[in-house]
Structure formats: structure tokens, C-alpha cells
Amino acid sequence: DTAVSQTPKYLVTQMGNDKSIKCEQNLGHDTMYWYKQDSKKFLKIMFSYNNKELIINETVPNRFSPKSPDKAHLNLHINSLELGDSAVYFCASSPSEGNEKLFFGSGTQLSVL
Amino acid sequence: GDSVTQMEGPVTLSEEAFLTINCTYTATGYPSLFWYVQYPGEGLQLLLKATKADDKGSNKGFEATYRKETTSFHLEKGSVQVSDSAVYFCALGGSNAGKSTFGDGTTLTVKP
Lengths: 113, 112
What we know:
The complex is a heterodimer. In chain A, strand 7 and strand 8 form a beta hairpin. Chain A has strands spanning 4-7, 10-13, 19-25, 31-37, 43-50, 53-57, 64-70, 73-78, 87-94, 103-104, 108-112. Chain A has no helices and eleven strands. In chain A, strands 2, 4, 5, 6, 9, 10 and 11 form a seven-stranded mixed β-sheet that branches. Chain B is globular, with a radius of gyration of 13 Å.
């Protein structure tokens, strides 16, 4: 069983489209995250939710909207996609918000043409 | 705020060479320290961790010691293999509302 699973693995789309990425964790963790990794492998946090409540919202364009229907799921919806949104997006979870290790999904490679 | 400075890459070594990837940090409080590894096409996975000063984390032949006096957590391995080729990230635990701080990553390539 995959601990943190995200779909799709690859997403190729045109500029201006709207797309969603889904994430689910079966670890019973309270906290989930979205990270963006650029082509140089730099990793940047975007959002964090604890028990369905938003706790971290970094400087991310409001075209990006996370949604957490329950603590096992954290989805990412992106409106009006731009070329600069091309990256790998990682979902992660941890037992709680705090000083603990993160469990990452395998990533969604988004390519905006 | 918290920050992590990691040795710049890429690093290329021959098989069985000694590896050191430097990592220093600035932090308020007493965060846990982590090394994550990312193999090609995969997500990050925990390699090792240390939760307090002088702790040594170890896994798969890799080691790192939490040095509070030098604010460092350098990653070492005595003899690297081709299969160790990956990107390595040093990170501070998220003591501030769960926000972990990652270094920029160091790409390691090991040649046979």
C-alpha cells in the first residue's frame, strides 16, 4: 500500500487551462503539505493543512487553491495555468505539525505548453 | 528565520570513494535535523535524522552528527556505490507550525 499517493503522475496541458492534482495518505497523519520543485531541484513549500485547517500559506498566486475534504486528502486546484507553473508538485504528510519527518508522494510532473 | 545552507553540487565521485556533503543551519529553538534522498523520478524519502545535539543518525552506510556548536549536520559515507546517485536534501524540522526548511539539494553522481 502506497503511504502517500498522488494523481496524476504526469499532467500536460495548455496555458490558460484549469487542472487539479489529488493527494491521499493512509498513514493516519494529521498534517499534509504541498511542495513545488523547480527544474533546479529547489523545493518550496506552498501550503500546509492540519486536520483540514490551513496553517501555512506561502506566497503563492491565488490561482492555486488547496482543498482538504478530510484529513486524509489534500487536493490542489490550479486556475489559468501559466508557463511558469511547470514543475514537479509533491504532496507530503507528517503525524502532526511540528518537528517530525515528512512522508512524500512520488510527485506530479506538470508541463504547461 | 530558519535557514539551511548546503554544499553546492553537482558532486561526481568514483565508486568506493568517500562522500561528504556539508550542511549548516541557522534556527531558533532546537529543531530536529534530517537528510532526505530523492532518487530519479521519485519523491523524497527520509535517509536519516537526529533529534538533539550530539545525536548521530545513520542508515544504509550514511551518517550525520548533530553539531550544535558548529550548527552543522554534514552527511558522510565511507564508500559510495553507483546506486547512491541521487539528490540529497538537508532539512530542519518544522518547529514553527510544521514548516520544515530544506536546503537547495546536492546532486550526487557515482561513476563505476
